[in-house]
C-alpha cells in the first residue's frame, strides 16, 4: 500500500514561513490534499489538488507537489496556525485513501 | 451550509457490535460519495470505508474489512457504519466525511463520535 511520510514536528516564529513536507514514491504523479486539525476539533481541508485553496482558507496557505515530495507552505505564520497538519492522497488503483502520519506545527 | 452530525458512539466490549450514524444536511446527500475516517487517541487519521453516492460500491481499509459495513439511506440523508467483532484497537473518534463530485479528498467533516472498545 502507498505510504506517506511527514516530519512529526515543525517549529516556526510568528511572521515567518512554515514548510511542511509530505514524502511518497512519485507523489508528484498524484494529487495531494492537506488538512489542518486543532486540538479537540475535526480536520479542516486547507489545500486540495496540490495547490488549490477553499474559499474560506487564507491566501497565506499554499501547496506544491513534485517528484517525491509535496509541500504545504504557510506564510506570515500566526499563533492561530498552531495545529496538526495531515497530507492525504487517493490511491486510485486500490480505491484506498491514504493519510500521512501528521505534523505538529508549533508557533514559537 | 453543509452539516454532518455523527451519533451512536460509546463503550462496547471486545467482540461486540455497535452502529454509528451520520445525519447529513445542507447538500443533496444522494449525489455524493461518503466516507468514515477514524483517529485513535493521540494518533493520526486513518481512512476506514467509502460508499458511492448510490450505495452500489463500497471500499474498506484492510484493518476493518470483513468486520465493518458501511451503508447509507438516501431517503433519510443518513450514513451508517456497522462495527462488528470490535477490537481494542478500534478505539477512536470516528468522523464521517463528504467527498466532492470526483473521488480524491474530503471537503466536509462531522464533529466525530468517540468509540471505546474495552472490557
Overview of this structure, please?
The complex is a heterodimer of chains A (108) and B (119). With 108 residues, chain A is an all-beta fold. Chain A has no helices and nine strands. Chain A has strands spanning 9-12, 18-23, 32-37, 44-47, 61-66, 69-74, 83-91, 96-99, 103-107. Chain A is globular, with a radius of gyration of 13 Å. By secondary structure, chain B is mainly beta. Chain B is built from no helices and eleven strands. In chain B, the strands form two sheets. In chain B, strands 2, 4, 5, 6, 9, 10 and 11 form a seven-stranded mixed sheet that branches. Chain B has a four-stranded antiparallel sheet with strand order 1-3-8-7, with no helix packed on it. In chain B, strand 4 (34-39) and strand 5 form a beta hairpin.
Query: What structural category characterises the helix and strand content of chain A?
Result: mainly beta
Largest interface: A-B, 25 and 21 residues
The major pleated sheet of chain A works out as: 6 strands, mixed
Number of strands of chain A: 9
Q: In what range is the share of β-strand residues of chain B?
A: over 45%
Mean pLDDT of chain B: 97
Shape of chain B: globular
Question: From N to C, what is the helix and strand string of chain A?
Answer: EEEEEEEEE
Question: How much helix is in the residues of chain B?
Answer: under 10%
List segments of chain A where confidence is low: pLDDT < 50 over at least 5 consecutive residues. Answer: none
User: With helices defined by DSSP (H or I, 4 residues minimum), what is the helix count of chain A?
Assistant: 0
State the helix count of chain B: 0
User: How many beta-strand elements of chain B?
Assistant: 11
**Class by alpha and beta content of chain B:** mainly beta
Spatial shape of chain A: globular
Mean pLDDT of chain A: 97
Amino acid at each position: 500500500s502507498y505510504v506517506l511520510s511527514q516530519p512529526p514536528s515543525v517549529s516556526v516564529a510568528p511572521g515567518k514561513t512554515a514548510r511542511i513536507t509530505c514524502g511518497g514514491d512519485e507523489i508528484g504523479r498524484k494529487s495531494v490534499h492537506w488538512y489542518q486539525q486543532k486540538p479537540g476539533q475535526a480536520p479542516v481541508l486547507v489545500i486540495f489538488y496540490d495547490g488549490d485553496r477553499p474559499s474560506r482558507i487564507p491566501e497565506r496557505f499554499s501547496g506544491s507537489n513534485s517528484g517525491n515530495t509535496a509541500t504545504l507552505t504557510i506564510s506570515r505564520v500566526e499563533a492561530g496556525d498552531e495545529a496538526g497538519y495531515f497530507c492525504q492522497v487517493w490511491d486510485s488503483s486500490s480505491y484506498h485513501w491514504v493519510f500521512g502520519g501528521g505534523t505538529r506545527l508549533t508557533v514559537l | 451550509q453543509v452539516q454532518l452530525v455523527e451519533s451512536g458512539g460509546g463503550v462496547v466490549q471486545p467482540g461486540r457490535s455497535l452502529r454509528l450514524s451520520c445525519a447529513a444536511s445542507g447538500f443533496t446527500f444522494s449525489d455524493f460519495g461518503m466516507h468514515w475516517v477514524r483517529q485513535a487517541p493521540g494518533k493520526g487519521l486513518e481512512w476506514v470505508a467509502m460508499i458511492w453516492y448510490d450505495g452500489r460500491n463500497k471500499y474498506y481499509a484492510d484493518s476493518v474489512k470483513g468486520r465493518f459495513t458501511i451503508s447509507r439511506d438516501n431517503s433519510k440523508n443518513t450514513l451508517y457504519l456497522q462495527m462488528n467483532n470490535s477490537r481494542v484497537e478500534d478505539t477512536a473518534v470516528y468522523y464521517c466525511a463528504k467527498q466532492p463530485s470526483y473521488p480524491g479528498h474530503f471537503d466536509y467533516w462531522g464533529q466525530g463520535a468517540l468509540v471505546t472498545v474495552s472490557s
